[in-house]
Model the fold of this input.
Amino acid sequence: MKLFTALAFLISSLSLVFLSFFNYKIPSLLVWFTLALVGAVFVFYISHKNLISYALKRFIGVVALLFVISSLVFVMLRALPGGPFDEDRALPPEVEKNIRDKYSLDAPLYQQYWMYIKKLVQGDMGASFKYLEQDVSDILGDTMPVSVQLGLYALILSYLLGIPLGLLSAVKHNTLWDRLAMITAISGIALPSFLVAPLAILFFGFYLGWFEVALWEGPAYYVLPVLVLGTRPASVIARLTRSSVLEVLSSDYVRTAKAKGLHPFVILYKHVLKNSFLPVLTFSGPLIAGLLTGSFIIEQIFAIPGMGKHLILSVTNRDYPLVLGATLVYCLILVLANLIVDLLYSYFDPRIRLS
Done:
């Protein structure tokens, strides 16, 4: 019954992702209902595994970590030589002084820090220095969904490619299938994204004309950036899965299951796969954070209007509020993804006890 419920929940969630890929307009009520259901399932899992106190301690640690990160980034930005308006040489001194007074850049550093923290606690990330009359929260709110959409498609692709490829390589160990799978995986790891992306654009976009090569306006625009972004993590997952499955296949309980006459399919998917998933799960924390916040290189190459573009421009423009806001969002997703991964350890290996 639990397996059926989990499969039904997984299929329904993947169906929403599949429909969004083809630009089907999903009602916002259904999206919020799905997110609430995900949260409810996870809270039930935490309470069922007696992990509430552990989760609360980690959550407090997340808040403290974000405070430390925001403080360090604030200080480092102010310590760098130059300022956000140094390149605007055409501005008269009076105008530049008014601008600096508007953003309190001439105030003492401790006063600037206090105003920033006070606004941040209230949920206000401040106004952008370069995008006039735009708040940082509005800029991130407009661009973050695109980066998350790109990362979510690439994440699903990396698991759908990496895990079966690693399983095939392990089951067909020292055969032609194993060598072909590992050559594919090593190639995916060795070839950098900034090289694969232009080659994919040249071959699939210009020579064959199968897909669009820029912007983010429909399925034809999604395929190439998702493939390029998902190939490298899929290759890492394949190698991790292969090495872990080979280790589990040589364990005593697998030999016992074979001696009992269990079907190889049952042994592989009931006894081997779950127990060999821990290395992949460990890798999933930073992977999820990196993909969901978007790849800066991929977004730049394919001209995708995601958060990566604004983060790069904010650094070059010394847009302090936008740099701080984007950094906090990235760090928040990273620490939450690692927290979720840590909480899932006890499911894949009941011997692990979190305290």
Remarks:
- Residues 20 and 26 are 7 Å apart (CA to CA).
- The radius of gyration is 24 Å.
